[in-house]
Amino acid sequence: MRRLLTLVFLLCLTIPAGITLTSCSRNPQAAYCNGEGYGLKLTQVASIDLEPRTTGISLAFGQTQQLATPTAYTCKGAKASVTSFTYGTSNNQLLDISPSGNLCAGTWNRRTGGGIPDYTICNYPTPLPTTNGLPYGSVTVTATAQSVTSDAVTVWVHAQVTSVSLVLQQVGSNSTINGCLSQTQTAQLNSQAYYSLNGAQTLLCSPSSTTVPSCSQAIGNLTYASQNPNIATIDEFGVITAQQPGTTYITASVAGSGSSAGEFSTCPPASINITLNGQTKGTVTQGVTQNLVTTVYDTKGNKLTGLSLDYQSTNPLNISAGTGGAITANFAGQADIYAVCQPTTCNTAPIDVIGLNQTGTPITSNPVTITTPGTASTFLWLASPQSQYFVPVELLTGTLGSTVKLPYFPNSMVMDRDGNDLYFGSSHELMVYSTTTNALIKEDPSVQGVVLAVSPDNQKVLMSDPVRKLFYLYTVNGGRSQTFAGVGNSAYWTPDAKTLYAVGTDFSTNSAGVPTLFVYNVNTGWTTYPLNQTTPSQSLAITVPSVGAFLSGYPTLAHAWCPNLTPSPGYPQGQAYPQAAQVNVETDQIAATNDGTHIIGVGLNGGTTPTLSDININLASSLVTGACPAAENGITIATPFQQTPLPFQASTITGVVPSPANNLSFVTYDAVNGAKPGSILPYYQPNTNGSLGQVGSVTLAGSATAPIAGVFSLDNTLFFVSTSGDNAVHYINMSTLQDTKQITPGLVDANGNVVPATLLAVKPRPTT
Fold first, then answer.
1. Domains located in the chain, CATH noted
2. pLDDT tens column, 206-245
3. How do strand 694-699 and strand 86-89 relate by DSSP bridges?
4. C-alpha angle 457/348/531, rounded to 5°?
């Protein structure tokens, strides 16, 4: 042994410097946190995180909740391995906790007997806590492992909350906010909560009361949720941030009890200003896209961004307005473009709080007038209810196309806005033809009647069935339809395809029928509004931007979007399209001028000499900016209306046809019995100052006895008018206002007799 020890000693002496033998030394300090060889080791628990440490937990008496599993860490921040935790509570009579970390707002059962396991029944605290006489209290809970204790989590124990009301406060302040918040601004959500005491709702906590504490003291952190995160977002601490204009419901939940706490509004636009190259008039060349510049300020004067605006064109087939205000000129012509903040894509609100802080209502911009120079050739389609045929006209060559036979006699013909399809109504079925091939592409016998209107997006068709006294709202793709009781005379969609107005008769409450305005909205469905008229309405006109609908008859009426939150006599709560204006003139046919500031109406007043009425309207005053009064709200008659007799005799007024590019309108009519050739086509050009405008007429060539129907080319270079007497179609040159050409469509009835065209449709075509 002595020799062996001597050998080891000699080896250690002879090893060169710089060579280390691990078997000759060790470093026990490396296993410890302090590197000194004692104290807490690197693998042992140094800290324990118990959540939720920032928000705490809220429990109603008798409620249970499993604590989140604690997380243990070493001194280096790595997760430490723990076999089990021991839980503690600062008051086990108010809040008990099982060995597995299950909380009880009261006390757990122990050794109950009867086979009932421990920690399965949570009993109310005995006695109940009282703080200044109110039933609430708080405790803390911790988790311990390896002699290390976690952070303390506060648990609020209280009576069951039965309802919560929202309170909006400045961040870091007790100052209450009323009204709306501007985009990106923040506020602190707070609440006042109630509990049931002897069957009565009793205030438990409130931030604005001097007799009860704030809810953060009494019941802890409430969880808030925004029904529409596009309008407002809420973080875990109840800080709400305004996003897009509109109103949304805010719900609050605490201790497993949730309720609708209130509403929050992001301030809506007060003004929308659009320009093209800094101007409100401009020229856009065919095939070139230019972008509008849109500036929006809210009701508190702050700038809004990121809005989903609808851009509407008064002549969308020629000049269209796309997403973001991109203007595309497809054909020569003129149009006014508007930007509209339109629910439900902008400034939306739940239906029962529409109007709150001016949300839920449409807001419209100024117009920008776009001109596309040049002329466009045109396709024209001609038909008649007296004939089973229709005929196309291609104006580039000036010749008639081949006559097309329909399956049934049509009672109506309407083309979709983009000029793709022709919809023919009949007493047997709906018939759809392609404008490209003039071929039948669909028949649907499930819907019959008169085609009144096709939605601007070509998705829905409104038909009126006078036999069954039903409206059919027909979905083009899929062929489904929904019905609504009534018979319609005339209908128009708003340019955004969201609202449909129809005038007619409601037979649901009176077998004789009640003159009625029918409104379909994509959000609210069908609603009806009885009309106080002695002469029922036969036609209607909407202004663009679509802020109202004018209805012919006596008196001439207007209805506009105006939701009401406060009922008043004759004006039920929630009514959205009430009467907005009344003009004591009788009109048989009406139309809105291109700029939307004149309603031109013509009526016979029971005789044969027509009277024209020029009703000036103020669109700026038609935007709803507050609560709706009982009547006369929404549309303002800017000046006293003007009237003048027209220099012809008629048995019926068949139409007022406005130009797509200026305010001139033609009047069409049926001749009186015994009328002789040499009739005139009357027109009216209103003044901008409210005085009576210019009345004129075009002498029709040949043997025409009356202009019965007409339509403009969309570049406003020609007006096509169908006439009785000669059964022809006359071309009116809009530069000279002269009858320059006539064609004979050759439509025949069942006996082979030639009949005039009363159904006309037109669309432009490329000139190349």
1. 47-158 (2.60.40.1080), 162-266 (2.60.40.1080), 275-372 (2.60.40.1080), 406-530 (2.130.10.10)
2. 988 889 999 989 999 899 999 999 999 999 889 999 999 9
3. unpaired
4. 70
